[in-house]
Amino acid sequence: MFFKNILVPYDESDHARSALHVALGMAGAYPEAKVHVVTVIPAGALPTPSLIGDDALNPSYALGDPYTYDKIVESMLHRARTNAEGAIKGAKDDAVCQVVADAVVASSPVEGIAEYVEQHGIDLVVMGRRGLGALRGMLGSVSFGVLRSVSVPVLTVK
Ligand code: ATP
Ligand code: MG
Asked: Is the C-beta atom of 23 inside 6 A of ligand 1?
């Protein structure tokens, strides 16, 4: 097995699901291989506690409490992990490789994917050519950004 740590960036799109199938096809026969199915939550998608806490009439006022804020972030990460686990269940078949679902917060999906590659010794990225965004050409902005920012091989899947 040439690739031991394969990252499948997962945005819940059909393209990303196809990428997961390809990654499992490549690694499935190797128990020592690991496929990481990872969703990046961009920091901009999180609620902004300072703004929410300023408005006493806003029913979300309690978000100003950092403890509540952490709980919301944790539940978003948990939801993303659960969705990735669902995709894994649907795709794993008889693959014997290790498969893990993960979710991280980062400044952008591209940043999060690049950081994950560095931190987890990823040696191949298998990702969708497009994602959940509107179709405008061949390659989505996240695929394009990842191709530019990581030094490991990247395989894009339609
Ligand atoms: P755009 O987002 O530029 O409108 P798009 O959604 O069609 O375009 P991309 O976002 O580039 O295309 O998605 C391509 C692939 O990138 C997806 O199939 C998935 O593998 C990965 N990806 C995109 N967003 C994320 C994310 N937030 N977390 C993890 N992987 C992602
Ligand atoms: Mg997208």
From this structure: no
Given a contact cutoff of 8 angstroms between Cβ atoms, the answer to whether 11 and 119 are in contact is no
Q: What is the mean pLDDT of each run of 10 residues along the chain (158 residues)?
A: 94 97 97 98 83 56 69 94 98 96 98 98 97 86 97 97
Q: How far apart are CA 157 and CA 139, in angstroms?
A: 10
Any domain includes 19:
no
Q: Could you identify the atom of ligand 1 that is nearest to the CA of residue 157?
A: 18
Answer yes or no: pTM beyond 0.85: yes
User: What is the residue range of 80's domain?
Assistant: 5-9+32-157
Contacts of 145 (CB under 8 A, 6+ apart): 108, 109, 110
Pairwise CA distance, residues 1 & 65, whole Å: 49
Q: What is the CATH number of the domain that holds 121?
A: 3.40.50.620
